[in-house]
Amino acid sequence: MHMADALISPAVGGAAWALSAAAVAYSTAKIKNELGDKKVPLMAVAGAFVFAAQMINFTIPATGSSGHIGGGILLSGLLGGFPALLTIAAVLVIQCLFFADGGLLALGCNIFNMGVIPCLVVYPLVFKPIVKGGYTVKRIGAASVLSAVAGLQIGAFGVVLETLLSGITALPFGAFVALMQPIHLAIGVVEGIVTAAVLGFVFAMRPEILETSGAGVSLPGGIPVKKVLLALALAALVVGGGLSIFASAYPDGLEWSMEGVAGTAELEAEGPAFRRAEAVQEATAFMPDYGFPSDGEGSAAGTAVAGIVGSLFTCALAGLAGFVIWRVKKNRIKPA
């Protein structure tokens, strides 16, 4: 559901940038006790895993479409809503700048649709109330599926509204929403199942991770998390560097919907704002479309390298953000 720049106007893109930046700043300010010497590494590794997982497009049967997980609910369950938003923002920034996945002008829209909505709206209003009575495998499963579906439905509707406000006449509201919502309902169900499986796995290993994230507190010092970190790191390596080469070749839900309405998944946009954004991405994206520039249509080797490199970059960016926030807040509360 990564939006390209051609789907929005500069005004809508600028407004979304401002909203998303404000949400990131708000999340940074609201983080109190969630992070610590155990949650910061988890933030880094979970971000790497979501980057890798987003490279796996799964086919939606009988549609000619595919989808991938958003990861907002998964990260919220592992980290809490505020750290999760920072982590998914790191994923989207790496994808945009280094792999040209999603437009630079549209980055604010993508962070809002795939980060702010699931992490700051759906997680506290849907996920947390379901598990409020106590974390169990059944409650985690129900919360994961319902939250993933809700997050993608609202996010998909956000895409439609953003194109409407941008005056993209090639994508009329009624026809576009009629395709976007059903296909993202199907994608949401699959994401919910994947989210439930991952959170259930972590819960079985270390229930304290989910419980402390829901409560907004850091993990106690005596709780070891090395096995969880290793498991997520290995999963990121296997998925990004191996399974990614078997991703579905069908267009994703957004592209499929665009083709159904406009007959193409690549709209054109003209103007200085679009040219400047494109020039920046051309300068920073060293592996556009997750492959070597010389590959043309791409290769298995290029995809594998992109999956590993992108996961490492995301791990570094998310981990650095978490570490800086943790250290600054820790220093502020030191006794005089």
Which terms summarize this structure?
336 residues, mainly alpha, Arp2/3 complex 21 kDa subunit ARPC3, two-stranded antiparallel sheet, 12 helices, 69% helix
Write a short abstract of this structure.
This protein is mainly alpha-helical and about 325 residues long.
Structure notes:
With 336 residues, the protein is mainly α. It has a single domain, classed as Arp2/3 complex 21 kDa subunit ARPC3. It contains twelve helices and two strands. The protein has helices spanning 10-30, 39-54, 72-79, 81-99, 107-131, 137-165, 173-205, 207-215, 226-241, 253-262, 272-284, 300-332; strands at residues 58-60, 65-67. The chain has a two-stranded antiparallel ribbon. Helix 2 (39-54) packs across helix 4 (81-99), helix 3 (72-79) crosses helix 5 (107-131) and helix 5 runs antiparallel to helix 6 (137-165). It is globular and about 55 Å long.
Shape, principal axes of CA atoms: globular
Q: Give me the Rg, rounded.
A: 19 Å
Q: What count of helical segments does DSSP give?
A: 12
Strand order of the largest sheet: 1-2
**Run of helices and strands:** HHEEHHHHHHHHHH
Query: Considering DSSP H and I runs of 4 or more, what fraction of the residues is helical?
Result: 55-70%
Summarize model confidence as the mean pLDDT. 95
Given helix and strand content, the structural type is mainly alpha
N/C terminus separation: 48 Å
Looking at the overall shape, the CATH architecture is: Orthogonal Bundle
